[in-house]
Predict the structure.
Amino acid sequence: MSITPLMPVYPRCGFRPVRGEHCHLIGEDGRRCLDFASGIAVNALGHSHAGLIGAIQRQAETLMHCSNLYGSPQGESLARRLVERTFADTVFFTNSGAEAVECAIKTARAYHQHAGHEQKFELITFNQAFHGRTLATISASSQEKMHKGFKPLLPGFRYVEFNDLEAVKAAIGPNTAGFLVEPIQGEGGIRVASDAFMQGLRALADEHDLLLVLDEVQCGVGRAGTFYAYEQYGIEPDVLATAKGIGGGFPLGACLATERAARGMVIGTHGSTYGGNPLAMAAGNAVLDAFEAEEILANVRDKSAKIVSRLEQFIGNYPELFDEVRGRGLLLGLKLKVEPRALVEHLRDNHGLLTVAGGENTIRIVPPLVIDDSHIDEFMEKLSAGAASYPTEPSGK
């Protein structure tokens, strides 16, 4: 048998973590790396947060799973807290970001079709977006690399250019149900939506009775410096998909919606065997506890300003390598003048710094939201050493 026991869909590297300590990962060989990847923006509280660990342990000793056939005091608690601090009136819990986006897509279609408008099923989405790896979510993306091998795609998505409001206006038609957009594109290259674009989408949705659906799987839960990124645009969505940081490392996602937007999501229209299980709800509540007790949002804004300032001074030393600094909060990117994966590998393998490649030749810098100044110093030291030792023409290029 030539295939590996783990289906070979990931280009796994040689670093094999077995333990996490706050903002570091330790490999099975004892090697210690500074984790500025955070499981791709997942480990918001780092790797050994006592409150999160304790909550999961206590819940595991009590009840891990039953069924959504029964009442859920744990889920009701977390849903209530999310409703209280967001635009939403109601929440559906999932196990992942892709599932949260799937629920958001269904919510947008059901909003119109519940009212008898069967023709309104199409969501306008945006080039370079990433919404997940299910058939619906790859269909919602214009990225051909995700389509290969899985066609035909699902109908119901129309792609236009990100940050181009005129293109959006031209794309609205009789089948349009709404807009699906990341306020900050993560995998697409840390591309930030402009205020005018987001406010324009909200105005168009109101004008045409469409739903504004936000994918904040990567940029939400404090990552951009506010609890959700939409708060920075002076608007509110109708539906929002969230995951990653909301569980602090435990698999958890959610679809948030207003009462009006969720009018079609009635008994029997949607479900999930594991969604909202007590163990996941304990993790989500522990994450919110940490946000309330530890001034995490203030820390994100403070550390973001320091990293951005130091990066902007630093990249001028290597004009052949770096182009610009992008992003908000601790969802930052370094746009390169070279292909990013080779530099990501160089930083990891030779300097013990973990980052993530993204679109548009960008390296994503997504550390835990609980970093302190010492982690910034270590990051800059490792990045500087990595840039200084990076070959002009890397091997394999």
The chain has a mean pLDDT of 97. Residues 103 and 270 are 8 Å apart (CA to CA).
